Amino acid sequence: MAVSVFAPASLANFSVGFDALGLAVKPVDNTLLGDLVSVEQAQGENSLKVVGEFADKLPSAPEDNIVWSCLHLFNEAMADAGLATEKVTITLEKKMPVGSGLGSSACSVVAALAGLNAYYRDCFDEKAMLKMMGQMEAKISGSLHYDNVAPCYLGGLQLMVADEHIISRSLPDFKDCFYVMAYPGIEVSTKAAREVLPENYCRKDLLSYGQNLASFVDACHRQDKTQAFAVLQDVVAEPYRQQLLPGYEQARNYLLAQGSLAVGISGSGPTLFCVCDQQERAQELARWLQDNYLQTELGFVHVCRVDDLGARTLKD
Ligand SMILES: Nc1ncnc2c1ncn2[C@@H]1O[C@H](COP(=O)(O)OP(=O)(O)O)[C@@H](O)[C@H]1O
Ligand SMILES: N[C@@H](CCOP(=O)(O)O)C(=O)O
């Protein structure tokens, strides 16, 4: 039996929750923005085939692909649980640009691990899966953060909680909002974008950070869109990372002047996101970003909604 799992793009940090908030997104035109992994029984040894638009951006040796590490981690977990495994052929359809700020590595990790779990008829529960996903994401970015893998796996808007038995909780999101995601077509590695951040923050920024995040979470629970987007300001990463994003400041100023509810960096960038509550306005801003924010022919812009489903098995 072969299984195929799709894992969607995500917008980590959401400006106010560095390493603590993440939103799964899906284009309104139904483009599959995310990675696909299929798992089937092998004739011989374990193998990994990589296809898709961004396959050539990944290391050529299968052992250097994070999906291969996922297979090893999953097999170890099966052995620890006293369960037998088979040799498998894995195919990764790499539809996501690498180093994009759209949770590309998380898409591969989540699709691979969820695909393997589906192949073995859901041997592991959600928490065990999330822990493995976090471990694989940390291997790539150099530090443990769940703000891509949690929304990518579970869907919706996720808040990382300081309890390793829970890891992530769903927050109520704003169903009438559109998220315009503009990927300029250049690469910014998450590791490098973490290295530009300061070791210490001043008291003023610390206080703003706590107040913005708390106000945002409160506004989500009360479905107070005005408060939620008024406090969506990043004092932790954006001031230091925007130097890595050509044209970011100019685009941000323009989009805010045109009535966007909020503008920010998606994950560690270079993708920029802006929020609107009218689809027509979102489409207009998407056209402007297409003409003014993209740097190479690999760039794209999508008008998205929240993806409530997260990782899902696709039928043939
Ligand atoms: N399947 C994979 N998907 C994405 N990146 C991968 C994968 N396998 C290995 N990598 C490597 O991991 C790194 C991912 O970089 P990162 O900046 O974390 O990407 P992103 O921010 O898009 O998740 C790159 O060096 C890339 O070559
Ligand atoms: N919280 C992380 C998120 C990285 O997201 P990515 O999509 O750029 O991998 C960070 O900001 O470093």
Q: Could you walk me through the main structural features you see in this protein, from its secondary elements to its overall organization?
A:
With 316 residues, the protein is α+β, with helices and mostly antiparallel strands. The protein has helices at residues 66-80, 104-119, 126-141, 149-154, 190-195, 203-222, 225-230, 238-241, 248-257, 279-292; strands at 3-8, 10-12, 21-27, 34-41, 47-51, 88-93, 157-160, 168-171, 178-183, 262-265, 272-276, 300-306, 312-314. It folds into two domains: 3-172 and 308-314, Ribosomal Protein S5, domain 2 (2-Layer Sandwich); 178-305, 2-Layer Sandwich (Alpha-Beta Plaits). The protein is built from ten helices and 13 strands. Strands 2, 3, 7, 8, 9, 10, 11 and 12 form an eight-stranded antiparallel sheet that branches. A five-stranded mixed sheet has the order 5-6-4-1-13, covered by helices on one side. The longest helix is centred in the last third of the chain and has 20 residues, at 203-222. The chain binds adenosine-5'-diphosphate and the ligand N[C@@H](CCOP(=O)(O)O)C(=O)O. Pathway: Amino-acid biosynthesis; L-threonine biosynthesis; L-threonine from L-aspartate: step 4/5. Residues 65-156 form the GHMP kinase N-terminal domain. It catalyses: L-homoserine + ATP = O-phospho-L-homoserine + ADP + H(+).
